[in-house]
Amino acid sequence: MGRSTREILENAEALAKRFEEWESDPARLRDAIAIRELHRAFQQAAQAQQEVVERVAAARGEGLSWAQIGAVMGTSGEAARKRFGRVEPRDAPARHKGRLAG
């Protein structure tokens, strides 16, 4: 149950002393950094995967074969088709139209 304003004021000095004496646990700080970095890496991987799906859709929309897409991805056309075959072909985004892959 929460404390009333009166209880907080009555214990203010003890609470202030607790906060002043509190020291963080370096092990917990390391854990927080590790989990934050893991979360960031996972988000980047998810964004990259979404980008790949969008590029595959654009490539299929421009008529590229599964063999060509697979070759770029370092796999076979059949493996690319199995992985991305449900992706709907669509026009390439404007920023990529007319640009040759390098």
Summarize the structure.
The chain has about 100 residues and is mainly α.
Give a description of the structure.
The chain is an all-alpha fold and 102 residues long. The chain has one domain (5-84). Helices cover 67% and strands 0% of the residues. It has 5 helices and no strands. It has helices spanning 5-10, 12-21, 26-61, 66-73, 77-84. It is rod-shaped. Residues 95-102 have low confidence and may be disordered.
Number of helices in the DSSP assignment: 5
Elements, N to C (H/E): HHHHH
Return the structural class.
Answer: mainly alpha
Distance between the termini: 64 Å
**Nearest-angstrom radius of gyration?**
27 Å
Q: Any low-confidence stretches, pLDDT <50, length ≥5? A: 95-102
**Helicity range:** 55-70%
Strand content: under 5%
Instruction: Report the average pLDDT across residues.
Output: 82
